[in-house]
Amino acid sequence: MSYDKRITAIGHQLNFPKGLLSGQVAIITGSGQGIGAEAARLFANEGAKVVISDIDAKKADEVTKSINEAGSAAISVPGDVLDPKYPEELVKKAAEFGNGKIHIIVNNAGYTWDAVIHKMSDKQWSNIIDLHTTGPFRIIRAAAPYFRVKDGESRSIVNISSTSGTHGNAGQANYSVAKAGVTGLTKTIAKEWGPQFGVRCNCIAFGHILTRLTGAKEAGASVTLPDGSKVALGIPEAQQRAAGAAQHLDIPLRRPGTATEAAGSILALCSPYFSYVTGQTIEVTGGRNI
């Protein structure tokens, strides 16, 4: 399809009677809960067939069930993005679900494992680097045959980053380096797959969003690693109390964002309204760091 015809086709779709993502197949990692689950529901509401990917099979199945019961289409493909074999399995099942096509990848899976630099172990470092950079890379590489195509259909990748990657953050050297790496990966994909195939690849750097990563550590949220050890998630209540009312004073909107608001920014980037946006890192922060 020529450039002019493609733009005309996009223009004709601007009424979106069947949804912004009608007919598209979307893989969303980490979609068993939090931002990923909200994104999955939003995508499904906009007509996408959604592939729910999460290390927690029970939660992935629950989100899948809720989407299907609402009249939309989803499948659950649980697994660990740190497992080198999982990306191939995920992409294979997504392509089968999409009758040979995949249109969207949202690399959202992740967590934090914090420590100040002089106390950070090699295990903490490598785990977070692999989780946030190697995992997404493997998924994108596995999906290459479904993105490097010339069928005139939209293809979009959204990699989830953080303001820790764009500005750094004390106690998060591993996470900051990993999320900065996501930006480099994003720009490279945009430059490699944009010219011939029209693939768009963008990055969202979230600020303070209300998820289990920013909730109270005392709530007990955790991630179990392949070796059986657990990583506690969240921020200690004492640290949150110490910040008090001042903790949101550097956010112009004076509040953290919700998971639904975060998911909405992902949907926006994948929608036809952002068809000329690629290679960008967009900060979704309520105005923090402006």
Automatic annotation (TrEMBL):
GO terms for molecular function: oxidoreductase activity, acting on the CH-OH group of donors, NAD or NADP as acceptor; quinone binding. InterPro entries: NAD(P)-bd_dom_sf, Sc_DH/Rdtase_CS, SDR_fam. GO terms for biological process: fatty acid biosynthetic process. It holds the Pfam family adh_short. Gene3D superfamilies: NAD(P)-binding Rossmann-like Domain. PANTHER family: 3-OXOACYL-[ACYL-CARRIER-PROTEIN] REDUCTASE, SHORT-CHAIN DEHYDROGENASES/REDUCTASES FAMILY MEMBER. Belongs to the short-chain dehydrogenases/reductases (SDR) family. This is 3-oxoacyl-reductase. The lineage of its organism: Eukaryota, Fungi, Dikarya, Ascomycota, Pezizomycotina.
